[in-house]
Design a protein that fits this description.
Chain lengths: 112, 112
């Protein structure tokens, strides 16, 4: 069964520092992959998605992710963290036709 | 455009009581989902629906039932609530053309 693993349940970075949130997938074929963000007391919203068109995917709010088949990874990055980036981030995979499985989430804390 | 609306937002139940969570979407989406979110476990798929009158089991379906009698509504029922069902429940619907989930704001359920 397809799944995703997020390394690090909590990540802290200083404001202005690089953000790196890790996601590895398990799949025999390149899957569709997603990053969603959840701000406090809200539902999830899409940051970006990989659908095999390009390995480097740009999303909203300056985030991007690179699909690396050789490493089965889809890590999320942002060059410079902002206080407003503090949230929980979820990696997800399409595990069947329109069936989505989420990772356990990474809570990002941005330090002033 | 309200998107995905969940009711109620909060509910406290005693063990053994029953209740229904309602999810309504006004975007004419075919697919709808129920997830539960628990600390350290991310979002887990309970049940989903690929269209009016159809439902399917997700990762953690035990103890829950669902119905999709109308395209815009997806109901999640607990026939005999247990403390293990204390969680935050999220409903989502899918715009298949963009492969993007739209989430509701969540329903926090506590079972005593």
């Amino acid at each position: 069964a397809q799944s995703v693993t997020q390394l690090g349940s909590h990540v802290s970075v200083s404001e202005g520092a690089l953000v790196l949130l890790r996601c590895n997938y398990s799949s025999s074929v390149p899957p569709y992959l997603f990053w969603y963000v959840q701000y406090p007391n809200q539902g999830l919203q899409l940051l970006l998605k990989y659908t095999s068109a390009a390995t480097l995917v740009k999303g909203i709010n300056g985030f991007e992710a690179e699909f690396k088949k050789s490493e089965t990874s889809f890590h999320l990055t942002k060059p410079s963290a902002h206080m407003s980036d503090a949230a929980e981030y979820f990696c997800a995979v399409e595990a069947g036709t329109y069936k989505y499985i989420f990772g356990t989430g990474t809570r990002l804390k941005v330090l002033a | 455009n309200a998107g995905v609306t969940q009711t109620p937002k909060f509910r406290v139940l005693k063990t053994g009581q029953s209740m229904t969570l309602l999810c309504a979407q006004d975007m004419n989406h075919e697919y709808m989902y129920w997830y539960r979110q628990d600390p350290g476990m991310g979002l887990r798929l309970i049940h989903y629906s690929v269209g009016e009158g159809t439902t399917a089991k997700g990762e953690v379906p035990d103890g829950y039932n669902v119905s999709r009698l109308k395209k815009q509504n997806f109901l999640l029922g607990l026939e005999s609530a247990a403390p293990s069902q204390t969680s935050v429940y999220f409903c989502a619907s899918l715009f298949t053309g963009a492969n993007v989930l739209t989430f509701g704001a969540g329903s926090r359920l506590t079972v005593l």
